[in-house]
Amino acid sequence: MTRVVDMIERKRDGGLLDADDIRNLIAAYTRDEVPDYQMSALLMAIYLKGMTPAELAPWTDAMLRSGDVLDLSHIPGIKVDKHSTGGVGDKISLPLAPLVAACGVKVPMVSGRGLGHTGGTLDKLESIPGFSTQQTTERFIELVKDIGLGLIGQTAQIAPADKRIYALRDVTGTVSSIPLISSSIMSKKLAEGIDALVLDVKVGSGAFMTTIEDARILAKTMVGIGEKMGKKVVALLTNMDEPLGQAIGNALEVRESIEVLQNKGPADIRALTLELAHEMLRLGGKDPALAEKALADGSGLKKFAEIIEAQGGDPKVCEDLDRLPKAQFTEPLCAEKSGYIQAVDTKEVGIGALVLGAGREKKEDAIDPGVGLMLKKRVGDKIEAGEPLMIIHHNKTGLDAAKKRLLAAYKIGAEKPVQKPLILDRIASEN
Ligand code: URA
């Protein structure tokens, strides 16, 4: 195999990596034969120089084949999953997966942890007392077959290379790269045995893609990878110029997700959950209108309680939200001037929650499940000086640093801003 240092230097200098070298490198890294510092340096070189399609194809394929590629063809029906490129307050997978499963489409879902300033589905789920996202492949298949969904993280069997590279990217400033995001998402998704996939590609100040042009390239890249593998893929480009819903932070987001399944919850979360559910149901050959029905009749909530129990968690959280972990202290953060909320630097809001303990600074850091933010105002709302912008839920860690960032993240002015639509575009595979 070519020396890793030679590969790093080639990429650093704008050269192309050889397909066999890429495959060998990913396999060796998965076997623990390449140290994190060399992989980190290579990831930074890729972040800065990008990857051509001829490099991205073997990179994604090697990540996908770093573990097992599941075959769920013995389970009747079309298997459909959804994945987001990452946002702030983006808890949509939590209400969406059980809602769609309750409508009869099988949802095998392999998710990730918090990444950069964004939260991760696994960290959110693990804030439910007892819930385990670490299930064997056999158990995952059983869950999908018997309950209609499974909510797990990568294991030694499913895309382990992504699990390790993802954790490195999180703490090395190498997240917002089109080839690294596409290969990370598509390797996990293609390993989990799906027939079709819905992608939520976030655009804006809280997303890894801040412009619609970059988001379109990312969406087309992922749709193209899926298409080549014979999967139907639909990507929605959605607004991330402000956090989704009111809750940011793990247990707070689980609480808000359960409220959505109780047919309540913030309007934007409900709307996006339903839009994505319609796409998944269409791909799964079902009537999209079933989604509204499963919200109204409580079958989505019942399905969530069922999967929580099956994965070792406390299903009673679905009736009694106070069983979820809570921070010890709450404190309002108040506006310093009056006017309209004109814009939010959403990434800064995500980092504000992270420094309280909702995310990681280093790979081995533990998450504090109860901390986070409950937003009181959205873009376009009027606010008076001294009125709360949000309530901070904290355990004293990082409070002053968070307050400083959070106040600076809000732009308040005299003009009411023009509101952006939630769905900005839709890109679908040819098949
Ligand atoms: N979600 C992932 O799984 N990977 C990324 O790189 C970004 C979002």
Give a concise summary.
With 431 residues, this protein is an alpha/beta fold.
Question: How would you characterize this protein structure?
Answer:
The chain is of the alpha/beta class. It folds into 3 domains: 4-50, Transferase, Pyrimidine Nucleoside Phosphorylase, Chain C (Transferase, Pyrimidine Nucleoside Phosphorylase, Chain A, domain 3); 80-321 and 423-428, Pyrimidine Nucleoside Phosphorylase, Chain A, domain 2, CATH 3.40.1030; 326-413, Pyrimidine nucleoside phosphorylase-like, C-terminal domain (Aldehyde Oxidoreductase, domain 3, Alpha-Beta Complex), CATH 3.90.1170. Helix content is 43%, strand content 16%. It is built from 16 helices and 13 strands. The protein has a 4-stranded mixed beta sheet with strand order 1-4-5-13, with helices on both faces. It has a 4-stranded antiparallel beta sheet with strand order 6-9-11-7, sandwiched between helices. A 3-stranded antiparallel beta sheet has the order 10-8-12. The chain is globular and about 65 Å long. The protein binds uracil. Uracil binds next to α9.
Descriptive terms for the model:
alpha/beta, single chain, Pyrimidine Nucleoside Phosphorylase, Chain A, domain 2, binds uracil, 431 residues, Transferase, Pyrimidine Nucleoside Phosphorylase, Chain A, domain 3
CATH level 3 topology of the largest domain: Pyrimidine Nucleoside Phosphorylase, Chain A, domain 2
Instruction: Count up the domains.
Output: 3
CATH superfamily of the largest domain, by name, is Nucleoside phosphorylase/phosphoribosyltransferase catalytic domain
Order of helices and strands: HHHHEHEHHEHHEHEEHHHHEEHEEEHEE
Beta-strand residue percentage: 15-25%
Helix fraction, binned, reads: 40-55%
Number of helices: 16
CATH architecture descriptor name of the largest domain: 3-Layer(aba) Sandwich
